[in-house]
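User: Last request for today: this protein with PAZ, please.
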Amino acid sequence: MAGLTGHPVLEIGDKFEELQNNIINNNKNKEVIDKARLVVKGEENSNNNNNNQGGERDMAPPTSNSLHRSGSRPQLDLSKAAIQGNSEERDPTILLPNQSDDISHFALDIGGSLIKLVYFSRHEGQSIDDKRKKTVKEISNGSRRSYPILGGRLHFVKFETSKLNECLDFISSKQLHNGRIDSHYWNSEATNKENAVIKATGGGAYKFADLFKERLGVSIDKEDEMDCLVAGANFLLKAIRHEAFTHMEGHKEFVQIDHNDLFPYLLVNVGSGVSMIKVDGDGKFQRVSGTNVGGGTYWGLGRLLTKCNSFDELLELSQRGDNRTIDMLVGDIYGGMDYSKIGLSASTIASSFGKAISDKKELEDHRPEDISLSLLRMISYNIGQISYLNALRFGLKRIFFGGFFIRGHAYTMDTISFAVHFWSQGQAQAMFLRHEGFLGALGAFMSYEKLGLDDLMVHQLVERFPMGAPYTGGKIHGPPLGNLNEKISWMEKFVLKGTEITAPVPMAPPGTTGLGGFEVPSSKGGTLRSDASALNVGVLHLVPTLEVFPLLANPKMYEPNTIDLSDHCELEYWFTVLSEHLPDLVDKAVASEGGTGDAKRRGDAFARAFSAHLARLMEEPAAYGKLGLANLLELREECLREFQFLDAYRSIKQRENEVSLAVLPDLLMELDRMDEVW
Ligand SMILES: CC(C)(COP(=O)(O)O)[C@@H](O)C(=O)NCCC(=O)O
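Assistant: Here's the final one, the structure of the complex with PAZ:
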């Protein structure tokens, strides 16, 4: 690794340096960086990137194909549709006569290592003939039609591709494949299930199409992977409040993106391999680069070198690693000294794994922890560096990193951020996405066309963390938890595990050494839990009936949380208040349900679930996104609802109503006796 000012250790084409120098020199006095963005020095206008147009044309690889997508898909005509069904999860098919407005139930991104699944469930009790909010969309023949937006929930689940059967079981147990929208079905008015079509992207959409047909009786409508990644990223960045964040030296900061100033940006999706996509608008993008050194490399090479069985096990090992035992540092080469002339400190890694060549040690003599950390660092750093060079190459302002390699893992994000920061001399910043792994699946989901999701306002999408999150995330296998008793017994198991999960991960002492970086994972927050396959994403609730308060000056930037719990004192105070109040709340909730044995059991389960969430948030306040007091109270409500306490204060309200009604006649008489005063 080398400083920007010196001679890069990596042989990067002169064109890059030349281009960089040109940009820097030509724009010396122009605006440099805004905290919320990655700004390549000298760029002046986010929407109009004319400065570098020439560079872009000159340097675009000949194989790059620029893809423009809008309105080219077949539109569904659902005017005579008659989907049938009545209950949410079990029989999700919906009757929508004369409307072209239903929403698909699920979509998949079947990657080289992981399958990502996004599925939709309607809000309970929502009538199909609700007067729902509508969105007007232009369709391919130029005419416009309106599509109501349904209220419901978007869930996120992942599986290992090698365990595809678990995914098929999950789909089957939730009957997701029976709630599909199927263009062929609508257009031909065919009614048999054989024609069911589901949207999927990623290589597995091709590879496993026959298996889906065989096991679930559905055909796969294949969506282009890059199309989907971009559609998913654009949707998240526009519709989800606090989706993007920066992560530097363990510090996570949410970034509010201005929708009018989103494009262009570089999207880096780190899956098994890495794709780098320059995004210019909705459906307007170009895959400008990629690297074959990605998540699959870490997992594959790591497995061979450490005998770890899973990606998460490997990541967890890295938490206890020390890469200095295996990486060759500048100090190892320069007798403990810095090479300050070119800006390299003694602790900078000169060559990843380089020490292994000179040591007499065999593989078994190295600690798997150290190997894992060195590998993680090498790959993350490399991705950060190549990404920055591509941002520079196209004069892009922002780099968003997605893909399941990142997994909300603090050290991975810190390393990528460090590389971007280091090579850009602080002029550029990496940003991460909370739904990092689901970009492709979300894009495939949205390709059902008429969802209108991309038109949703931030206020209409609310992320909630019921008892399962973050613990259930990727772990809901087998049949869904059907009844409450199952939920509670599962909860008991989860709490046992949860205690372990929320315990702080032992850390090596911090070791930031300046240029060249930190030697051991020193990042706090977002550190790996022992069950790392759990996701940090909740369920997205679509609430299309919400209206924005008309007097708000800037609804998109409005922050309803007045108490920000990123302030540590506030956080401690409110956690204490809520924890101490918990037994009392449980008593009231149980009393509201008649104080039965069943209610007591549910009350205990609720208390355990909510305490586990509190412990998790205490450990990592930003685990579920930006945390304000309103979010915390909503989380508590959601937990109560999860255990079927619809109103914890019902008994108090009832008692107070009764008391009020008892004194009402006297009060009315007293009022009648009063002299009228004019
Ligand atoms: C081929 C892929 C798009 C597949 O996506 P994935 O399943 O890895 O998410 C990706 O692995 C990739 O971009 N690989 C890098 C190839 C290269 O540009 O060198």
